[in-house]
Batch of 2 targets.
Target 1
Amino acid sequence: MTLRVLSVASEAVPFVKTGGLADVVGALPGALAPHDVAMTTLLPGYPAVMRAIGKGRTIHTYPALLGEPARLVAAKIGAHSLVVLDAPAYFARDGGPYGDPAGRDWADNWRRFAAFGRAAADLAGGAVKRQRFDLIHAHDWQAAMALAYLRFAPPEGGRALPSVMTIHNIAFQGWHGAEIFPGLGLPDAAWSVHGVEYHGGVGFLKAGMEAASAITTVSPTYATEIRDPAFGMGLEGLVLSRGDRMRGILNGIDTGQWNPETDAELAATFGPRKLERRTLNKRALESEFALEPGDGPLFIVIGRLTWQKGMDVLLAALDHLVGIGGRLALLGAGEAALEAGFHAAAVKHPGRIAVRTAYDEALSHRMQGGGDAILVPSRFEPCGLTQLYGLAYGCVPVVARTGGLADTVIDANVAGLQAGVATGIQFDGVTIQSVTAAISRANALYRQPAQWRLLQRNGMKCDFSWARSGKAYADLYVQLVEEHR
Ligand code: ADP
């Protein structure tokens, strides 16, 4: 029997993306289809999403959804079955999904995503004609209130259904002051430590975690790490208390989008047996970033320039990177001080360090295809996707041993090299010493071409497609639906 699942998220590729969440939500329907799961994705009606769906089909109208007119619009775009919450007062704005064009969070984010959660609960819980679901899967705090509404204020005449809450990054919890509680339209019973109350306010992610039939996060190591205060960011107690309902399922990558043998972005496509063709991509990348040619490794970085990603430490290690004969091409945007720091490093080391503070998907492909090694010095990393793209593209990952980075890269230590299984370099703790030592290790291995090629080929042989993880989600759904019967 086909299981009908409503996936609720604030981002999905190819419609709207600020990070890895979008990649995962966009890939899940395809990953689950072979397992007899029909997935519909509910998204907020941001301008880009409304443009993508065109006219669509109105399936539900709200005169006032938490005070504003709104409607649910269904559309099929390629393989995606979408329902979009068209609520212009909440989502028809310039800027990003969460903030204004200057990057400041919208002051009414609580109301925007409470309304989104309310609509998700109505759709999943049976309030919308001809829409029936067996399970609801909410992603991150923006979708989490759906589970609280289903628990404390289900739609009239609706039916209960099992739920999954996936945490893509526990650092983002959607906490808001107590004054918002009356505006949520929840009964007083919801205001409790086992409901939505969290540290004297309302915790959206916390509320979802309390209400969910099962909680998942995006790698096995991160699922263990967030039991610890250093990673749990205040929610470690709840993670521990719900430990029996918690599991880590590794993200996959979309191998249709990310395949070096077919990638139209690359100057030269290549596979594990045609690695020498990567040189063409490397030359193209050097010229695109105006880097001097050199015989040392060309490192790349792709990602948000934030404390989480360890970018402050990397910045402090750049003199060393250049000193060993390395070069760096960086693509990322984020904290103003870090952006300025990297631009200053590029001025200090012209031809050796080059920086693009932009969001550029196509360039990220060219970098993975032409760089020698990708640096991911994250202080914490729930799963991480860029190291997986690196593995697939023969761009050797140099990563901190945390979260999904620990789960996906095999360190080139003596045992890993002797057994011929190493795929990259891992280091412990994000300090200048550990990062510079890792850069030196990468450099030493790079200068032994046979060893380096082995690392590249081993990485390219790894299967991080969605096949395994799609099955893991499908098994979880089936288990929850059976338990619920
Ligand atoms: P996070 O979700 O914490 O930002 P992930 O590694 O899980 O980190 O996912 C980041 C995703 O966003 C990857 O697909 C990465 O390639 C992409 N990405 C991040 N920054 C940029 C950028 N500046 N340009 C293009 N792609 C980017």
Target 2
Amino acid sequence: MPFRTRWHRTLARFFSPDKVPVWLLAAAAIGVGVIVTTIVLRETANTQAGYEQYKWRDTKYADIRSRIVTRNTSSVVSTIEYPVTTHGKINETIAAVLDRYNRSFDAYVSSHRTRVPFEQNSSYEVVRHTNKYLSILVSTSRDYHHGQPERETAYWTFDRETGQPLTLSDLFGTQATDGIARVNLYVRQEIARQSARHPVGYDMSRVNTLLTDEYYKSFLAPTNTTLRFDFSPGEIADASLGTITVTLPIDNLQLFMQTSTARGLFDIMSVGAPNSPRVQAHPGSPDCQQLKCIALTFDDGPSTHTSGLLDTLMANNAHASFFLIGQNIARYPSIVQRQHLEGHTIGNHSWDHTRLTRLNQTQVAREITLTNDQIKRTAGTTPTYVRPPNGAINRSVISTFERLNMTSVLWSVDTRDWADRNTDIIYNRVVANAKPGSIVILHDVHKTSVNAVSRIIKTLQKEGYTFVSLDEMFGPNPAPGKIISRASQ
Ligand code: ZN
């Protein structure tokens, strides 16, 4: 029994009276260790269902933290990163979508067996962070070992005070119908451009059926000059192309964004009626303070359709305004002379229809001056009204207009005639939206638009409208450096 004896001797030595303090110390140290470990674990992680854990992570934003929920089992490897902001409603809205992704993952996992765990990764990206607004994008990637992981995205721009996600209607206010229709046209144009660069994978018929004006609810506002829409992989193009991102400059949407929400998110210039009182153009010209005046404006000419349009205006005793592209004038000098002689206003629509917001101030000035000089040479009048091509404006363009003493004219009745090219639609849009003081945008390069004019004039004249030029509506050059879209009536 030597072993037993040695064992007993060791035990006896350990518990001998002179070793008791060491023993107690060891026990105390283990006790403290257990307590500290428990506290630390409770602070940093929580255990649910035996395998789900969460922890917190700071972000670069002092007021947003991430709650990260992970699961690791033989069939599941999952990480979900929830943003936790200072507003509970924002957190709930986002968590609801991440949870929906998670339920769909769990439903798949519970009905399929696997040796290699199925994977889920869901997280978020702060696209814009201001005191008042938060643009957030969430995305999930679920790998079921089919080759291509399934991906989905969702996004919002939240009002941080109310916690409500904003819609395009909040941005556009009373102009939501026209604003959203424009957004849809621009998004589809951009997708068509992208698909031209990647001919394989885009489903343009899907784009056309999915992207109606009703499709647009939420949006991202990455900067104070851009709007962004993301499409989940597979939504409008082959999933292998990934998320399709469409970023739109707001330079040509400012007309529709005259709300306080839009001003909070973007750099928006005021567009509306001129502040200064109307100056009568000539003694004897119509008094738009008394009459129901309306201004038809025609862009992009002169063209082969313009002469017939002048005949129609004359036959109906109507005046209008023409925003000419400088480089088109030399081909139709007599038409430009007629426009002036027959009492219409001639305005400037740049030399070559460049988007002026992409030019520097010297280049913008050249576009305007060349065109003004060409009109002066041809018709003997110098324009004071300018319509920026595509309605695209920014502070730099407008300050150049101001230096050149030009009044910018946008519009209040948006026919979108260039997109639809349908005489009935154009007629209906004008008649349905006409108000005293309206400025209507049309294009005399499209036969479909010119063909609508006679009916438009006859119907609205019966309703008591007088068709006037911009000079007659406002007087010459009412608001240099300002942007007007209608009369103050
Ligand atoms: Zn144009």
